[in-house]
Each structure stands twice: as structure tokens, then as C-alpha cells.
Amino acid sequence: MKVIEGESDFTVPAAGKACKTWYKVTGDLTSGRRPLVAVHGGPGVNHGYLLILSDLTKAHSIPLVVYDQIGTGNSTHLPEKMGDVGFWTEQLFLDELDNLLAALGIQDNYDLLGHSWGGMLGSRHAALQPAGLKHLVLASTPAAMELWVKSQNALRAKLPQDIIDVLDKHEKDGTTDSQEYRDAVGVFYSRHLCTINPLPEPIAEGFSWIQKDPTVYLTMNGPSEFDITGPLKDWSMLQDAHKIKVPTLVLNGRFDEAQDPVVAPFFNEISRVKWVTFAESSHMLHWEERERYMSIVGHFLLDYAGGI
């Protein structure tokens, strides 16, 4: 398959320096087939764990666009903006997405798949009703962070008591950067982030970017999934989900951090929508039930017109 990599200039006056968004395209954007733009989670991981979506390129000739959001991966890093909540805003990432679509010349005809935080961004983008967006996939995406936190706490309460004690201790002491705390979080992740053991390298690499440069994650989110102190703690689509008018596919897993109540508002509020829950998956559906995932998403992108 044809693969190209590039960088798109991204003007951010408040950054104080030139910024670029790195991207990769698998397939041919000039083929006549509508491209799929995949938006990664985090915030602060990178694109790598979404390259598996090139299965759709192989099967259906759907061009795949992945990119690293500003602040992570191969795009411009701004560690000097640590803690600057006025800089790291949802609007910054919406502007970056619009800029990339225009730079690639696909702004008039594209589909969008967002995973986790990427789906949060994608849902807001869709609610603005851009003319070129034709289909939306929200994979393990919370409709509101208050629902996400409630889900995390409910799942956390089912962990072994010794793991809960470690989490509680380090959060109380403010030592969430300790290895013991990370190991305890790892137990949670093995149940609700990705059940594949060992963790696939692209997923592990994505999370390593939060360690390499935690600027975006710590500023917008906070120390962990359980301790959200950044501005994302108040993020919500509950009042705006009904503004999404394109056919939408909502996905989550039985063991997902995004449990059913977390994603249900999208199903309840979007007029043209389908919802599929994967019985054997947690947060990484596209890895854990790869074949079924690609079949469902491929069929939706090619055939679904929102008639139910």
C-alpha cells in the first residue's frame, strides 16, 4: 500500500514558535474513496496504536490518515507550556484538526474515527456540523467526564483490596509518580484498558509518550484516570450531542473503562446512530477483537446511511 508521511504547518500565535502537525497517510487520497481520519486518545499518547486501522485500507481501499496531536509524538512539543490551561484547550486541538484536513485537501469529504479522548474531540468537531464530515465513529468515548470518573471508580472498587490500598495511599500522599502506584494502575489497565498480555508494542509506545513528555496529559487531565484535576474534568457533550447529524457508530467493550452509561448519551441523543458493544474487549477494541471490529467499522463506513 502507498504510505506517505509529512508535516503540516500549524500556526499557533500563543505558542511563541512555529508549530507542525506530523501525519501519515496509508492508501491513496486521490483514489476517489473517502478517507478515514483517525484521532488518537490520551491526550498525550501518539498515533501508533491506530495504524492497525490500515486493515480497512487493505480490505476496502479506504485511505487512512493518522496524526500526532500537538504536544506529542512527532509533532511540535511545548514543555514550556506545562500547566498552562489557557493554552491547552479543546479549541486548540479542534483548530489543529481543521488545519490538517485543509492541508491534505480532504476537508470537503472525509470520515472521522476518534478513540477515547480522540472521540471526545471528534464528537465536538461533529457537533459543529462541518460540511465535509460524512460518518463518525466514537470508540470508547465518554459523553461526559463526570460519567467517565464514575465508571472508573466503580471498576476500581472491584480491584483486589491490596491494589486499592496502594492507589489510595499514593493519591493521598501525592506520590502518584511512584513505581508502586504505576504498578497498581497497571493492574487496572490489564483489566480495563487492554486485556492482551503482553501489551502490544504500539499501545505501550503510545503510553510511553506520556512519560517522555507529560505536558499535555498532566495539564489537561491530571495525574491519572482516577484523579482528574485538569480542565477536562468539566468536559461534557451532554448538551450538544444532539447537534451531531451525520451517521454515527458508537463502540465500547464489555470490560471497557467506558462502560455503557458512559457512552449511552451519544446513543440517546444522536438521531442517526448505531451502538455495538464488544463482548470480549476492554478499551482497545480494535486490538482485542480485531477482525470483528474491522468488519463492523468497514460495513458502517461503506454502507450505513442512518436509516434506523
Task: List the main descriptive attributes of the protein structure presented here.
308 residues; 8 strands; Rossmann fold; 11 helices; alpha/beta
What does this structure look like?
This protein has 308 residues and is of the alpha/beta class. It has one domain: Alpha/Beta hydrolase fold, catalytic domain (Rossmann fold, 3-Layer(aba) Sandwich). Helices cover 38% and strands 16% of the residues. Strands 1-2-4-3-5-6-7-8 form an eight-stranded mixed sheet, sandwiched between helices. Helix 3 links the parallel strand 5 and strand 6 (133-139). Helix 5 packs across helix 6 (179-192). The two termini are 35 Å apart. The model has no long low-confidence stretch (mean pLDDT 96).
Tally of DSSP β-strands: 8
Radius of gyration: 18 Å
Q: What coarse outline follows from CA principal-axis ratios?
A: globular
| Major β-sheet strand ordering | 1-2-4-3-5-6-7-8
SSE-based structural type = alpha/beta
Element-level helix/strand string: EEEHEHEHEHHHHHEHEHH
Largest sheet: 8 strands, mixed
> How many discrete domains?
1
Proper CATH architecture: 3-Layer(aba) Sandwich
CATH class: Alpha Beta
CATH topology: Rossmann fold
Are there runs of 5+ residues with pLDDT below 50, and where?
none
Cα-to-Cα separation, first versus last residue: 35 Å
Q: CATH-wise, what's the superfamily?
A: Alpha/Beta hydrolase fold, catalytic domain
* Overall mean pLDDT: 96
How much beta, percentage-wise? 15-25%
Tally of alpha and pi helices = 11
Q: Bin the helical content.
A: 25-40%
